[in-house]
Amino acid sequence: MENYEIVLWNIRQSKQRIKKAILKDRIIIFFTRVIEDLKTYKNPNLYGRIKDIHHILFPFDEDTTPKKVMEKMRFASLKQSEGLMLDNHENKYLKFFIENIDKQGRCKNPEEMRKRTEEMQKILVLKYLPNSAKLIEPFILGKMISSMGGIERIARKPSSTIQLIGAEKALFRHMARKTPSPKHGLLFYSTKIKDSKEKGKDSRALANKLAIALRMDYYRNFPQPLSLGFSSSGQ
Amino acid sequence: MKSKENWNPNKSKWKAALEKGLDIKPKENDNILYLGASSGTTVGQISNLTNGIIFAVENSPDMAIELVKLAEKKKNIAPIFSDARNTEYIKKSIFGKEINILFQDIPSTDQVEILIRNSELLAKDGKILFSLKTQSISQQSPQITCREAEIKLNEKFKILSKISLEPYHKKHYFFVLKKK
Question: How far is B73 from chain A (nearest CA, A)?
Fold first, then answer.
């Protein structure tokens, strides 16, 4: 084979394989961050989030100036993308999300936007993480995944780490200066921990159950394309 | 794209080794297998020096996206999105080309084993350039870890030269190896 043929074959092949490796947890993280934005500010500028979703759907685009990005997200069909595959339901919501944002990046109706985003995020989490969604609220679960940066990373962590996600600052202060150790991170916002009397004990028990449930969800519902077809040794 | 002066030794192991005085510039028609390409800062510079193909292997999707973008601009980079331990897939995508230089820069606990596994793809008189990050193998002092890795390497390869990349990269060593 000629040199340029090999290069073209490899580019085509790795584009297909990257498409399989972009998982649905990205879109869960995206919705969680939109809700966080809408909760903290009255009418935030959502252009950054549009850039995020553009990077997930069309990762190989060359031109990423604001004008081009907005144009592409508005008029291109989101279903035939090079990146993540969307189903009908997600596609419908995203259309609504983009149409509701004007040229300055503000939303036209923040109240309705927030309501529908929360609804959508809940549906997605219940669909892809059914076991762990029984233990804590979907929004807090999404927050934990987004702070770790992916479902794969959180599923491989021990339960003691899951217990302390979001309390890193207190943990390192404890290690350096021997202040009292933190007992709960983001788990604290769950109603199970908030209302209980023994918060440290309960959050440890919850983290133990959550670690098991997350592993079950990750290996059942998310494909692991790179590890297929070869046996790892010494790992 | 970037000019040759822009090649920063603080960001590239290959450039740091060149600054240290090793003679490891690729010849004109060398084919290179590059394990651990990341977003392609070094690969982009190396592609200016040779006319052969550079096979760049990368594992993480976010970095591989940048690599594919770079490969579309240059004409002699072939991005391979795969785990470096998966030698079967790498062998398939090389199409029987003769590999003259094998470069590895993977911060992992089994980096020496990965190198031994991939060295079967190399031609008989090919060169191996290997950057060893001691901190990801063990937390003990770097000299001891380097000595332990050297014992493993000596079984399969002949060590031509070995230096530390000290002012540019901390706790890193650089090896030039040959097949026995």
Answer: 10
